[in-house]
Input
Amino acid sequence: MPSNTPLIVRRQPPIRLATTLAAWCGLACLACWVHAEETNRLSSDVIIPKSVFVSEGDMGRDPFFPATTRLQKKAPDDAGRRQPVKLDFSRLLKLTGITASAKPIANINNLTFATGEEQDVKVEGGRVKIRVLEIREKSVVVSVENQSEPVVLNLRDSPLDFTK
Output
């Protein structure tokens, strides 16, 4: 008995059509790739200029700080020239103690010095370099930086009050 059920047959696309389509897509991609490679190359006639910065006096300006005045030349001020002020730091040096031994030691502004030693000492206006020339029984002779003559520092004669 013959059956009346219909036969379902699937149709496959022709292989020739699929291969042709794939080949055309490959050729199109290859053509685009070749064209892109040509356009990304620099031509030999294009010259890129180098940057030149000029900073001479009033000519030119700083691209990062356009309002700066440091590039402008300053006029020499001959009329207002002053002699440098020499500060006398010797008044700020205080001799606070002397130890009497085979090698005497002086205490100046809370720093210890032996004869011939040189150190920077903190004072109110900054720092000053001093050298101890001689240590006596109640005084010390020091050479202060930027002063031509040595300075004598004396111990205070006031007794210390330990009752407070």
